[in-house]
Amino acid sequence: MSKEAILGAIRRGLKRGPLPADQRAMLDGRLASHPRHLIPARSRVSRPEQIALFIRNVEKEFGTVERVPDLAAVPAALADYLAAQNLPTAFPMAPHPELLGIPWDSRPLLQPEPRRAQGTDQVSLQHGFAGIAETGTLMLPSAPERPTTLNLLADTAVVLLRASRIHGAYEEAWDALRAEHRDARTGGPMPRNIMFVTGPSRSADIEQTLELGAHGPRRLHILLLDDDPAALPPGA
After folding, report:
1. 140/109 same-domain check
2. Which of 20, 21, 96, 203 is most buried by a 10 A CB count?
């Protein structure tokens, strides 16, 4: 059923015809303007403080963060993390150009496979689109180069995120997505799916006992690439 057929059925059910021109113009303006909502003051700080706030909030929600100086340092950082957690060195990763360009051969034991995740995978490596400092949240839009299954199926989710992609508030992350993303089919700015990930999956539904990995990964590890000079702590 087409979009117009669905909307027509809704109008008939409401016993209402097409919207008058003034109401349609008002709604079109509302959709185009993206008005700002209340932005917490805690995110309106300097760049080093925003990065520190992001890291604190990730760790508060049971995630872990390791800062790396450049892409060449990623294989060693990931290999050390996998060894410390006794995890396998073969893993699916997002077929994103930035991940594909990493010199993985510097750590020959690592076996990254550019593909979607499967239910048997223990580790996955995703490419982060943006981070949100006010809550320590990752913004992960779906795309061919960022398969959504990498966010859900593996027991341990690792995400590479640039410090320059950390925003203070949610509104700023939405602005970046609208500015940079164009759907190949519709031409619009929104991808098929956007996931907001704050820490590993967890639930306390049963007897108020916290259980990690209830609905997805039980570990979330972020490799934070220090590519923003303004975000480095003083003296770094």
Report:
1. yes
2. 96
Same-domain check for residues 5 and 59: no
Residue at token pair 């913004």: 139
Q: pTM of the full predicted structure?
A: 0.85
Residue 115, in any domain of the structure: yes
Provide the residue range defining the domain that includes 23.
1-33
Are the C-beta atoms of residues 94 and 126 closer than 8 Å to each other?
A: yes
Which residue type, as a one-letter code, is found at position 10? I
Per the CB < 8 A criterion, the answer to whether 57 and 136 are in contact is yes
- Sorted by sequence, the CB contacts under 8 Å of residue 74 that are 6+ apart come out as 68, 102, 160, 223, 225
10-64: pLDDT as tens digits: 888 888 877 888 888 888 887 777 777 778 888 889 999 999 999 999 999 999 9
- Say if residues 92 and 121 touch (Cβ distance below 8 Å): yes
